[in-house]
């Protein structure tokens, strides 16, 4: 049997090397045979664009038919199932009852909670009542063996929970009082979910970070493993989308985004990813997405930190972000890890075509060694408290207006 | 009189409830009700207009590239940008790949279970007891093609990744053009996958569609709507980006006409929005009112010249003169499959026309203010984005989707929406197994993720209160 360590190594290998097909699949089959039946899975779409399910369909190793016919038992999934209406709802009730404590609940989408949850429904109960998303998650959550929040909406709220959050959309973890394994992405990469499910079936719950994300996937920043890192080090920056340089100056959020896109690549065949397509990473897996990641095409804000060139004028804006939430810790950690600091505040030459991103204000530089010393007080992947959105609803607008002010 | 409610209607994006009344074995009344709402356009207010493309993609996972296209066209309209030919070609190829993915998945994944018995295991059971007319051998064949389709729709998505970085929610369609300069290696990979997909469409999907039509000929009569079709045109002409490869226009009972976007309005009498008069999308506004008694859907009622129109591949092929047999359920299904074949062949031409070394993107400075409109064909039909901006921020954004046209509820004058109309007269053999309803309504390739989003304008005033 494949050891857990070997499995994780495989997952980390990513890219073309990541192949559940040749190595893990037989082990999975073994593990499944040992069980009395394939683990039942409920794929519950709530407030979603269905992008996560459609991305999941793109799984290559294993292929979808292997996954749903040989490994898991997909008992409910409204995009694919033959049943409809009452028959579908009864199928859901059946699996919830018969496989209580055994089924895996995959939630795809945020949960609208405003006005009793009337903004989203998975259908109607046989007696005619609306079956709201909120009710569905609250009913199915407690009986599940595992709850997996697939995609950024389920994990962190995502685009529909962005300011002003018209429907009171919440992540699954804020609706259920139990462990929820967050597998964010907008959409989710098929491998991210398949690897998580495989780990659950083979070894149980994977190592999770403080955001309950599997560390085997969300352990490093995009910037850490970016193939264009050398462009960044050498200050070769793209002037606009479509340019082949480092996309940092046109808005790349890779330095504050934790996932393995650069090594894994999209989709089933691992062909490309947003930076390779000469566009910025927009941080779609991050808890702060999208509010904390916008504007998508503007450079990350300058930052006042030890070890870093400081621009006084921007300190206020940055302080706002740092207090607001997780991005602060990500940002701090990333800045302090090394040479990022040098480029962070535009000490090097930038391309002239991107207005509003140049350096300015008083500058002060600490040595790299001092920076590292200072870095030790804060873990590099430690999130700073709750979601930005939950705490500070006006965060987006405030940062926006401060950035505006900064430009003038 | 028997009432049947199908909620959720599965095998589509989003959440939809359809209610019909059956008398003497026929549908005599129908209601289409969108039962979820997210508010993305409200969320767009105050954001950078360049972000609208990536954000509106998040309306819908199966047609994200169509929203990216509409948004890009809108910004280009406002900023007066001309996209280089390579940029148009790249965007057409990304959108084309996504469209093939959609048409493949719609025909096999969403439609076939209404006509064919799959194996006796989930997700093919439970299912209705109904008239599945294929022989065992044919069913087995179709099931094999269903499995092959999983591979082919994935490959269609992989194509878009080559030029768009990822999918769903691709990065490669932006105002200004495409972002991936073509080279021989990418063209080769794209071409190889396109060949496989187009061979599958030609050799399996098109014959399967005709076989389906042969076994269920009554659906050439059942599910006929208003015989009103609308299209905004689809795919920019690479040399002349103002022109469309598929021309826009209207068809009223067999008579083709020019499209005048000023005649588009949205009505909300029977939708869960505060009462308002019919408004053009560029001036429209929406105030959600979930408790409204006469309302029964989150979908608004778009009308053209006050009349309901249906939109989709049938409208596009009718206007091209490629398919004019009729307006019923089977006509919609056939038109979609034939459109997939047509788009695959166009994509081969576009791929060959890419010119390595030539620019793909027109850069621009974001102006302080402006307004624009982006009209395009999406997988399901006419898609429009209207927006205004001030101080480099969005002050108004409105999206009118194809599924809003097709799945709309009754309007101010009480006229049923196209799907509601098409259901009238549908024979129901067994009210306990009303499979015929799904056969009619899925012929529209319904998408509630697109249809039921919020529409909100008059950005300067915050009128959103519940």
Largest interface: A-B, 94 and 85 residues
Examine the secondary-structure arrangement and name the CATH architecture of the largest domain in chain A.
3-Layer(aba) Sandwich
**Main β-sheet description of chain B:** 4 strands, mixed
CATH topology (level 3) name of chain B: Cytochrome-c3 Hydrogenase, chain B
Q: Please summarize the sheet with the most strands of chain A.
A: 5 strands, parallel
Structural class of chain B: alpha+beta
**SSE string of chain A, helices as H and strands as E:** HHEHHEHEEEEHEHEEHHHHHHHHHH
The helix tally of chain B amounts to 12
CATH topology of the largest domain in chain A: Rossmann fold
State the name of the first-level CATH class of the largest domain in chain A.
Answer: Alpha Beta
Globally, the shape of chain B reads: globular
Total count of strands of chain B: 14
How would you describe the oligomerization state of the chains in this entry? heterodimer
Architecture (CATH level 2) name of chain B = Orthogonal Bundle
The best one-word shape of chain A is globular
CATH homologous group name of chain B = Cytochrome-c3 Hydrogenase, chain B
Estimate nothing, just give the exact number of structural domains of chain A: 2
Describe it.
- The complex is a heterodimer of chains A (408) and B (466).
- In chain A, the strands form three sheets. A five-stranded parallel beta sheet of chain A has the order 2-1-3-7-9, sandwiched between helices. A two-stranded antiparallel sheet of chain A has the order 4-8. Chain A has a two-stranded antiparallel sheet with strand order 5-6.
- Chain A has 17 helices and nine strands.
- Chain A has two domains: 4-218, NADH:ubiquinone oxidoreductase-like, 20kDa subunit (Rossmann fold), CATH 3.40.50; 229-407, Cytochrome-c3 Hydrogenase, Chain A, domain 2 (Irregular).
- In chain A, helix 2 (20-34) runs parallel beside helix 8 (190-203), helix 12 crosses helix 13 (326-336) and helix 12 (312-324) packs antiparallel against helix 17 (395-407).
- In chain A, a hairpin with a 5-residue loop joins strand 5 and strand 6 (130-132).
- Chain A is 36% helix and 9% strand.
- Chain A is an alpha/beta fold and 408 residues long.
- With 466 residues, chain B is an alpha+beta fold.
- Chain B has twelve helices and 14 strands.
- In chain B, strands 8-7-4-11 form a four-stranded mixed beta sheet. In chain B, strands 1-2-3 form a three-stranded antiparallel beta sheet.
- The longest helix of chain B is centred in the middle third of the chain and has 32 residues, at 184-215.
- Chain B starts with a strand and ends in a 15-residue tail after the last helix.
- Classes of the chains: A alpha/beta (408), B alpha+beta (466).
- Chains A and B meet through helix 3, helix 4, strand 2, helix 5 and strand 5 of A and helix 1 and helix 5 of B.
């Amino acid at each position: 049997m494949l050891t857990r360590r070997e499995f994780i190594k495989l997952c980390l290998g990513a890219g073309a090397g990541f192949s559940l097909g040749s190595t893990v699949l037989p082990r999975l089959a073994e593990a499944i045979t040992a069980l009395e039946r394939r683990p039942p899975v409920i794929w519950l779409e709530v407030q979603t664009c269905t992008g996560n399910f459609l991305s999941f369909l793109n799984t290559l190793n294993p292929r979808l038919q292997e996954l749903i016919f040989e490994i898991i038992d997909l008992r409910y999934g409204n995009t694919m199932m033959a049943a409809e209406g009452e028959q579908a709802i009864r199928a859901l009730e059946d699996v919830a009852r018969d496989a209580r404590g055994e089924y895996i609940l995959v939630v795809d989408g945020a949960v609208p909670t405003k006005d009793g949850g009337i903004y989203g429904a998975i259908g109607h109960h046989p007696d005619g009542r609306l079956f709201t998303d909120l009710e569905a998650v609250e009913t199915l959550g407690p009986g599940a063996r595992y709850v997996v929040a697939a995609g950024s909406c389920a994990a962190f709220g995502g685009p529909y929970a962005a300011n002003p959050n018209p429907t009171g959309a919440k992540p699954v973890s804020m609706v259920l009082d139990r462990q929820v394994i967050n597998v964010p992405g907008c959409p989710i990469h098929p491998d991210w979910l398949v690897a998580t499910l495989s780990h659950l079936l083979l070894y149980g719950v994977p190592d999770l970070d403080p955001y309950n994300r599997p560390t085997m996937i969300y352990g490093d920043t995009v910037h850490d493993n970016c193939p264009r890192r050398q462009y960044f080090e050498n200050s070769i920056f793209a002037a606009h989308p479509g340019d082949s340089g480092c996309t940092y100056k046109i808005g790349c959020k890779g330095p504050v985004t934790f996932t393995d896109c650069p090594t894994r690549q999209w989709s089933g065949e691992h062909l490309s990813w947003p930076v390779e397509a000469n566009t910025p990473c927009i941080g779609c897996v991050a808890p702060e997405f999208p509010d904390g990641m916008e504007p998508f095409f503007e450079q990350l804000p300058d930052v006042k930190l030890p070890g870093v060139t400081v621009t006084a004028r921007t300190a206020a804006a940055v302080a706002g972000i740092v207090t607001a939430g997780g991005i602060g810790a990500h940002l701090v950690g990333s800045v302090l890890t090394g040479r990022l600091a040098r480029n962070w505040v535009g000490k090097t030459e930038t391309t002239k075509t991107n207005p509003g991103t140049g350096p300015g204000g008083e500058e002060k530089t600490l040595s790299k060694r001092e920076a590292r010393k200072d870095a030790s007080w804060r873990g590099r992947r430690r999130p700073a408290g709750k979601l930005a959105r939950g705490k500070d609803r006006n965060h987006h607008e405030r940062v926006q207006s401060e950035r505006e002010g900064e430009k003038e | 009189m028997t009432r049947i409610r199908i909620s959720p209607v599965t095998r589509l994006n989003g959440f939809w409830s359809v209610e019909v009344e059956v008398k003497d074995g026929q549908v005599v009344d129908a209601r289409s009700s969108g039962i979820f709402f997210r508010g993305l356009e409200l969320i767009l207010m105050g954001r950078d207009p360049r972000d609208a493309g990536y954000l509106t993609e998040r309306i819908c996972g199966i047609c994200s590239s169509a929203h990216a296209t509409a948004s890009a066209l809108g910004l280009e309209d406002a900023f007066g940008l001309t996209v280089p030919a390579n940029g148009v070609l790249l965007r057409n190829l990304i959108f084309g790949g996504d469209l093939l993915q959609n048409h493949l998945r719609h025909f096999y994944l969403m439609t076939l279970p209404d006509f064919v018995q799959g194996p006796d295991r989930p997700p093919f059971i439970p299912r209705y007891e109904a008239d599945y007319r294929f022989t065992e051998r044919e069913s087995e064949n179709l099931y094999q093609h269903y499995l092959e389709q999983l591979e082919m729709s994935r490959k269609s998505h992989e194509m878009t990744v080559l030029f768009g970085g990822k999918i769903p929610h691709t990065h490669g369609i932006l105002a200004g053009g495409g972002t991936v300069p073509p080279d021989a290696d990418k063209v080769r990979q794209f071409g190889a996958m396109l060949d496989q997909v187009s061979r599958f469409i030609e050799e399996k999907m098109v014959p399967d569609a005709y076989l389906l039509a042969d076994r269920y000929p009554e659906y050439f009569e059942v599910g006929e709507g208003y015989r009103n079709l609308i299209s905004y045109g689809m795919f920019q002409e690479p040399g002349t980006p103002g022109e469309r490869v598929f021309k826009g226009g209207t068809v009223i009972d067999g008579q083709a006409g020019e499209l005048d976007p000023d005649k588009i309005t949205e009505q909300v009498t029977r939708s869960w929005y505060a009462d308002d008069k019919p408004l053009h999308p560029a001036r429209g506004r929406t105030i959600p009112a979930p408790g409204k008694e006469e309302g029964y859907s989150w979908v608004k009622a778009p009308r053209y010249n006050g009349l309901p129109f249906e939109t989709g591949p049938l409208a596009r092929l009718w206007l091209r003169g490629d398919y004019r047999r009729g307006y019923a359920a089977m006509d919609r299904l056939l038109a979609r499959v034939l459109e997939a074949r047509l788009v695959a062949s166009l994509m081969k031409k576009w791929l060959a026309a890419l010119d390595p070394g030539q620019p793909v993107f027109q850069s621009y400075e974001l102006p302080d203010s402006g307004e624009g409109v982006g009209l395009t064909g999406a997988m399901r039909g006419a898609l429009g984005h209207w927006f205004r901006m001030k101080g480099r921020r969005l002050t108004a954004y409105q999206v009118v989707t194809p599924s809003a046209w097709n799945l709309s509820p009754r309007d101010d004058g009480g006229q049923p929406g196209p799907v509601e109309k098409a259901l009238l007269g549908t024979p129901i053999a067994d009210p306990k197994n009303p499979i015929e309803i799904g056969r009619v309504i899925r012929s529209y390739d319904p998408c509630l993720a697109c249809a039921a989003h919020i529409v909100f304008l008059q950005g300067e005033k915050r009128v959103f209160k519940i």
